[in-house]
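retry 2 of 3: previous attempt timed out while embedding nicotinamide-adenine-dinucleotide. Reduced batch size to 1 and resubmitted. Inputs unchanged:
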Amino acid sequence: MASGFFKIPQPINEPVKDYSINSPEREEVLATYKSLYSQQVQVPLYIGDSKVVTKQQKNMFPPHDHQHCVGSYSIADQDHIEKAIEASLQARTSWASMDWEQRAAIFLKAADLIAGPYRSKINAATMIAQSKTIHQAEIDAACEFIDFLTFNVQFMSEIYSEQPISSEGVWNRLEYRPLEGFVYVVSPFNFTAIAGNLCASAALMGNVVVWKPSDHQVYSAQVIMGIFKEAGLPDGVINMVMGDPEMITNTVLSNADFSGIHFTGSTHVFKNIWGKIGANIQQYKTYPRIVGETGGKDFIVAHPSANSKVVSTAIVRGAFEFQGQKCSAASRVYLPESIANEVIENVKKDIASIRIGSPENFENFITAVIHEASFDKLTAVIDQVKHDNNAEIVAGGTYDKSQGYFIYPTVILTKDPHYYTMETELFGPVVTIYIYPDNEWEKTLKLIDNTSEYALTGAVISSDRSAIATATKLLVNAAGNFYINDKPTGAVVGQQPFGGARASGTNDKAGSKLNLLRWVSPRLLKETLVPPTDYRYPFLGE
Ligand code: NAD
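retry 2 succeeded.
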């Protein structure tokens, strides 16, 4: 039992290592990468205290080398899912009643394990599974994940210390109970940190979890589970299951103890899940919390006052890093005609210098897209543009899947601001530019606001303060994360809480107190110190 109001170690953002030539971290991560690459792992289901290896297995291949098998993972059937739910509910009582500082210590230890002994392993696994360059792996799997864990402990302590006032003779207290039941986590392929945080944020607040990672992130997901276990997470608190997403989701959502979903992925999948929850609402013991961060069609808009180099750098970094597979990646750009040619020429020059290939070669700025379906979808778009009259490819447009799913950074120029690549999320290294007349700033901002169903990230680039002010006002609902004179990617935990509205999600801001509040169901305790003994109020006197 706690006998002190414990102070949290002050979180600071994990410094990003630079992996420059001859640095010790570069040698270490390359050695780890090589060693993992030459082995095969078998990833089990994690159900309670068991690691279940099933008969049905699926092989894992790095996207940049799709004939090289790095292992396999187990596929669950319905019975496994039911067992995972059961295991979570069995773990619930002791986990929910564990003193908060013990839960905090487990996740702080996980953060320190990632910062130290597991850094090269989780980075190398992310390079292999998701084809991230070392820089992209470091800012995701190491730094962002560590920040989620340490800052969330701080946010938890702030939430717990928010208490109601008390009046004379009364003591009011708020307990931030976990949800009654279990939380279902469904995570995307693109960030190891997101996968870990979707589970850890709910569990930190005392919840138990059934986690279904993306098929394309299982390889790095097993590293996360290993770290949580080594940090002392009790069996059954987070259960990891893989398999048919429909079957797993239907089984979970038909369980009466389902108390919430923490989802990140595409909009149509989330809407489909929301519909199923609605259809099942009569059978749940509690109204489930529904938290989902979903797709984006993120913009950069440059004002005529913008520096063309600032704009082109924001485009190249914002659109092409990690092959454009960040939910926040810039994918539609609005340039004023006075600087458009200069910006496009700068982008072309930058693209000509970009190297593409395996993340093992540190000269490569971009590597492969995640899987063949994504490659085929993106190349079909590129081919379509080549045939269309109202759009043209001004850079890139080539691709090759002989060894890995490589697509060269591609820039489309369109005369139609509603051309489909200005509106549809493509999730690849493809960006579309529309050129507007210099004197139509406000009209262009309104166009941006009305063009897409999404509202995740956006950036305005200008050196004119009144233009920035107008954009900030007119685009108030167009992005949950709005950047001024920057690229629209790269949110840092504790600094830029992340999330969008409209079709981009419930905007519960990962990496902030707002998110953690979704995983508690407060109980108010009112204690009267000396209770009355007579029902009569003074006004009843004669
Ligand atoms: P995805 O929607 O294909 O998959 C996400 C998860 O949903 C995976 O675990 C997948 O197995 C599961 N899933 C797929 N079909 C399902 C079904 N029918 N029922 C239940 N679960 C199902 O997304 P992805 O390709 O892994 O990730 C890319 C998407 O995620 C993009 O749309 C991107 O914008 C979005 N994303 C958003 C954010 C954000 O913070 N807003 C962050 C990262 C990614």
